[in-house]
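Wed. Picked up where I left off yesterday with beta-aspartyl-peptidase. The coffee machine is broken again, so keeping this brief.
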Amino acid sequence: MDLLINQNLFIIITILLSSSFSMGLGNEIQNLGQYPLVVSTWPFVEAVRAAWRAVDNGLSAVDSVVEGCSACEELRCDGTVGPGGSPDENGETTIDALVMDGTTMEVGAVAAMRYVKDGIRAARLVMQHTQHTLIVGEKASNFVISMGLPGPTNLSSPESTAKWVKWKDNGCQPNFWKNVLPANSCGPYHPRKLPSFVEGTCSRGSVGGIPSTSSHIDLQNHDTISMAVIDHMGHIAVGTSTNGATFKIPGRVGDGPIAGSSAYADTEVGACGATGDGDIMMRFLPCYQVVESMRLGMEPKLAAEDAIMRITRKYPNFVGAIFAVDKNGVHAGACHGWIFQYSVRSPVMEDVQVFTVLP
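Structure written out below (tokens, as returned):
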């Protein structure tokens, strides 16, 4: 036990000493409630700076979110945002993105979008020029190109292609298939006959939890930038962008473009952003839960923790994280399965600060 405590202390001290940004441990440090405010998953500092420049110059919350997420796409943040990363089983990169206006509750989103690199701007076009919420696949590409975005273009990169070739050489392992044959090589796959009891709720809900895909999710495969902005008027917007899980089954859509899962905003209450195992999170709509918990009076810290715990009760191996921010700009985070960091810029800060949340 003493050894475990010492190891944990060493991890905490290392995090504090190694960071070049101001940090708060866990959920304990929150800002003073001023806005405008920008909050983003991960130390995507340049993306937060881009959003801050926009909102500080008087742009709306929606416009500022678009500027921030677009900067992350251009920088290819962590290889999981924008073009050039996260190849699917066919070696192709596709884009998921969402933007939500917390004042009008309008949402625009694209999913499994091919040939167009500007995910967040594509999502904005869906919100601006259609009465729909979500457009997917190649038809989404055709729509946004017709609305003026550049394309078609190849979204792969030498790095994503090399990663895919290495994965193929390793027998397509790991992958997201289950209950198929062949089990340890590349497809085509065929269903494996299962005992009838596997379909029962008792076996799936047994002690130890329901199996999840979180073994594939780590700090280099965490999917999403999720960003919230409160503008000078107090209006709130959120946006997300991702190129999805690496080696996903083609056509897969994660939680990135799903309102209430990767992000949610209501100007009357606050906002939430999430990152991690999107296939699990979208089953719980954690960001919708966070905002509704804050509506009922729960503090951002407790609302974020409660949403994470609701997932881990069913999926103990879940890997993911949430930030919550109320309408006054008070923010907090919660996570499970990894150490989470989120970035903040407010009027009382000289530059972006990165906050660290321990699982």
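Quick read: The radius of gyration is 20 Å.
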